[in-house]
Design brief:
It contains 10 helices and 8 strands. The longest helix is centred in the C-terminal third of the chain and has 34 residues. Strands 7-5-6-4-1-2-3-8 form an 8-stranded mixed beta sheet, with helices on both faces. It folds into 2 domains: 215 residues, Spore Coat Polysaccharide Biosynthesis Protein SpsA, Chain A (Alpha-Beta Complex); 66 residues. It is 52% helix and 17% strand. By secondary structure, the chain is α/β, with parallel strands linked by helices. Helix 5 runs parallel beside helix 8 and helix 9 runs antiparallel to helix 10. Strand 1, helix 1 and strand 2 form a beta-alpha-beta unit. The structure holds uridine-5'-diphosphate and magnesium ion. Uridine-5'-diphosphate (UDP) binds next to strand 1 and helix 3.
């Protein structure tokens, strides 16, 4: 009998967890001839999420929770889930029901009978979401695709079912700065896409502020591409040429204010490039420390 592991990162999700549990268990129990486990990764929630998870785990022997010692972020939660999942097929899905559970059965069929290694949900619209966030997100995916030359589509999130082989491949990537969307693309494998319409959260609020989304976006770029450094070199070279021409020109007409703004502009550019270099250095710095990606404080799973 095949076993499906469902990984659910949760951060302050007390309002939606009971709903999520009901829908997902109902869906999983309808799939014929499978065993399942649901791993709730409680990412340092400050509300009553842990109490609810304890109750669910007590009620259903297929449910397990892992509570982190603090908020380590969704990437760390997904990694903890992948490390602890024992299923032949592993699903990652959000706790807020924005990843429709009804797709689970089709995902399983695709992996089991159609020979795919991964079956992922792709959101085809963003109706009901903040317009500015949609625009920024769309632009970010254009930039990251260009910079990394990897297939990272807007709308393609972390919601997917993977074979054990693909999960093991992802677990081989042990980096501290984790960017799962890049990793799915990096490990390759055959992916089938299932489209779905955006579903609004039934309760609770998004856990992402603009600030955290920006830092997530930069993490994605810096952990999967060195193109910004190459671009820095090229732009630096072009600016040196321009500066040479302007210097020669200003020697003849002594236009000093023009020179001042040029110097300011060039030092600004230099600072930006120093910052880009700094980003890569700081990534190396954190990788070299080899700190744990997450720390579990509490779990009902016996090791
Ligand atoms: N999440 C998490 N840790 C965090 C932030 C979010 O585990 O630091 C979880 C959250 O509980 C949810 C999923 O990640 O299950 C997606 O978060 P959210 O719904 O806030 O993101 P959005 O759908 O707005 O992109
Ligand atoms: Mg959500």
């Amino acid at each position: 009998m095949d076993k499906i592991s469902v990984i659910v990162p949760c951060f302050n999700e007390e309002e939606v967890l009971p709903l999520f549990y009901k829908e997902v268990v109902h869906t999983l129990e309808k799939i014929q001839n499978i065993d399942y486990e649901i791993l709730f990764i409680n990412d340092g929630s400050q509300d009553h999420s842990e109490d609810i998870l304890k109750l669910l785990a007590h009620k259903n022997k297929h449910c397990f929770y892992y509570s982190f010692s603090r908020n380590f972020g969704k990437e760390a939660a997904m990694y903890a889930g992948l490390e602890n999942a024992s299923g032949d097929y592993v699903v990652i899905m959000d706790a807020d029901l924005q990843h429709p559970p009804y797709l689970l059965e089709s995902m399983y069929q695709a992996l089991k009978y159609e020979d795919y290694d991964c079956c992922a949900g792709k959101r085809i619209d963003r109706i009901g979401e903040n317009k500015l966030r949609n625009f920024l997100s769309h632009s970010f995916y254009k930039v990251i695709q260009y910079l990394t030359k990897m297939d990272m589509d807007d709308g393609a999130g972390d919601f997917r079912m993977m074979t054990r082989q693909m999960v093991d491949a992802i677990l081989e990537l042990k980096e501290y700065n984790r960017y799962m969307k890049g990793m799915f693309s990096f490990v390759g494998f055959n992916t089938k896409w299932l489209e779905f319409h955006n579903v609004e959260r039934p309760a609770g609020k998004t856990k992402w502020s603009f600030k955290s989304l920006f830092s997530y976006a930069f993490k994605g770029i810096f952990s999967f591409s060195s193109t910004p450094i190459t671009m820095a070199g090229v732009i630096g070279g072009i600016l040196i040429l321009i500066a040479c021409f302007i210097s020669l020109y200003s020697i003849f007409i002594h236009h000093l204010s023009y020179l001042t703004s040029l110097v300011l502009f060039l030092s600004g550019i230099q600072l930006v490039f120093v910052a880009i270099l700094g980003q890569y250095c700081s990534s190396c710095y954190f990788e070299s420390k080899q700190r744990p990606i997450y720390i579990i404080k509490n779990t009902n799973k016996k090791v």
